[in-house]
Amino acid sequence: MSTAETLPVVRGKLTAKAPLAPLVWFKSGGPADWLFEPKDAGDLSDFLRDLDPAIPVMALGLGSNLIVRDGGFPGVVVRLGKTFAKVTVEDGQTLSCGGGASGILVSSTARDVGVGGLEFLRSIPGTVGGFVRMNGGAYGREVKDILIDADVVLRSGERRTLSLADLGYTYRHSELPEGAVVIGATFRGRPGEPAVIQAEMDRISASREASQPLRSKTGGSTFKNPDGHKAWQLVDEAGCRGFAVGGAQVSEKHTNFLINTGDATSADIEALGEEVRRRVKNKSGVDLQWEIQRVGKPE
């Protein structure tokens, strides 16, 4: 990995050997070679333009839906700060959102100005950049249903605006180029009454609280729902509820969630997921696919 002397000069903050475990929901995993918190979009663009193209780059939002392996990330992790967390109303039904804005902030801003259709973002524990990248969704809605376009900085440093079609969305997947960082997105909703929007957000919040292990160290939904199946049901039918590997366990509350019971390594969590996949395949013949992103190198 490059030394500080060979990295581009930045106006933001650049940290060597930065611990990532405190920044991810699982609270496990090794450090990043470098953590870059850009001052603004220009700082990010210049840095990526001048960075050795061989050095991997990964954007990190709130750290949900992510396993950082115990050997850490061999490259630069980009984390967007408050500069990228603004949400503004462009017109009656359109919101311009920074890549670092949370789903809660976006949905609450929409509610305040009477824009409906974005309530589901209240339930996605991540930032605009993360759920634009993976076509995040819940409660029957997906980002592709509300996205107009996304502003990105490519690995080359080039800034581009990508349309909905450019992103090639499928279930929990986009064609966003490797190393690209989403710095903003434009969403369109529909007219709605704030009180009705709030009631739907309350319903979603209560449903999550009742059914998901939100107070545990977890990574959100672990596996994608296969066509015609619910992942949690397949895991349950394979006898995996409560099953553990080391300090990692399949949640008793929701079997499509893995939890860190206290001292799990990322290797424990990933091994548990792979064993669940094996058991489901043996029981039902279905090949579960990871929804959680796994990055970095083993220890």
Automatic annotation (TrEMBL):
Gene name of the record: murB
Function: Cell wall formation.
Native organism taxonomy: Bacteria, Pseudomonadati, Pseudomonadota, Alphaproteobacteria, Sphingomonadales
Pathways involved: Cell wall biogenesis; peptidoglycan biosynthesis
Entry keyword set: Cell cycle, Cell division, Cell shape, Cell wall biogenesis/degradation, Cytoplasm, FAD, Flavoprotein, NADP, Oxidoreductase, Peptidoglycan synthesis
Cofactor dependence: FAD
Domain FAD-binding PCMH-type: 27-192
Record has Cell wall biogenesis/degradation as a keyword: yes
Reactions mediated catalytically: UDP-N-acetyl-alpha-D-muramate + NADP(+) = UDP-N-acetyl-3-O-(1-carboxyvinyl)-alpha-D-glucosamine + NADPH + H(+)
Superkingdom as given in the UniProt entry: Bacteria
Gene Ontology terms: biological process: cell division; cell wall organization; peptidoglycan biosynthetic process; regulation of cell shape
Subcellular localization(s) per the UniProt record: Cytoplasm
One protein family per Pfam: MurB_C
NCBIfam families: murB (TIGR00179), PRK13905.1 (NF010480)
Keyword Transferase among record annotations: no
Region of interest called Disordered, as start-end residue ranges on this chain: 207-227
This enzyme's EC code(s): 1.3.1.98
Transmembrane segments: none
Protein name, per record: UDP-N-acetylenolpyruvoylglucosamine reductase
Native organism: Sphingopyxis bauzanensis
PROSITE patterns: FAD_PCMH
Matches recorded under SUPFAM superfamilies: FAD-binding/transporter-associated domain-like, Uridine diphospho-N-Acetylenolpyruvylglucosamine reductase, MurB, C-terminal domain
An annotated GO cellular component: cytosol
Family the entry assigns: Belongs to the MurB family.
